[in-house]
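@here heads up, posting the sequence + SMILES for the glutathione run so it's all in one place. Ping me if the SMILES looks off, I pulled it from an old spreadsheet.
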Amino acid sequence: MSRIRVSAFRWVPPFAQGLVREFRVRWALEEAGLPYEEWLIGPEDQQTEHYRGFQPFGQVPAYEEDGLVLFESGAIVLHIAERSEVLLPSEPKARARAKTWMFAALNTMEPPIQNLAGLDLFHAGEDWVKQHRPQVVEAVRTRLAELGKWMEGREYLEERFTAGDLLMTEVLRILRHTELLAEFPALEAYVKRCDARPAFQKAMADHLAPFARNAPS
Ligand SMILES: N[C@@H](CCC(=O)N[C@@H](CS)C(=O)NCC(=O)O)C(=O)O
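bot reply: prediction finished. Complex structure tokens:
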């Protein structure tokens, strides 16, 4: 059995708890049934040459498996999914469709959603944000409406849960500080459906545990 190690923050403020990108990797590993060790880091580690050898941008997550080092949550989830029928169907067309949705989550949905989260979580109340935010909200709403239309009458993006759904619902959860998802009941139900998976619940508990242990006093 390979030895897998995933970097995660020792502690982040409550607004970021549940949203750090290593959570996607934990969830994928749980779905795939692959055991792993967490590698807890802090801001001081992000700048070191050692950590940058694993993650050139100093971010979380970094992933190590028997001498293979990977970074970028999407690439790591894909690497894990390649070995798991739960995450990627072996039938070639279904497999390609699932990968298409993985890219759609990260490349079409996440940029506008992260843009909004960046404004709200890091720059709330600043003058330039007040002017710019309505446009950003509209960009998110447009994508949500399009995805919501696709999800009408569907439980998952394709016939069944795949790594595409894992990444898509992960990205949609970034909007938890807004009411936007509630405007699209099909999407809200879809996120709830995926969050109810035992692998999600286990990964979330493991993601949150270090924050409780290392909360500043
Ligand atoms: N595209 C990267 C983004 C990783 C990322 O943004 N990580 C955040 C935590 S969610 C981080 O480490 N932020 C600290 C920093 O950028 O210094 C991925 O998906 O892995």
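MO: The beta strands are 4-9, 37-41, 62-65, 68-71.
MO: One more: Residues 4-86+199-213 form a domain with the Glutaredoxin fold (CATH 3.40.30.10).
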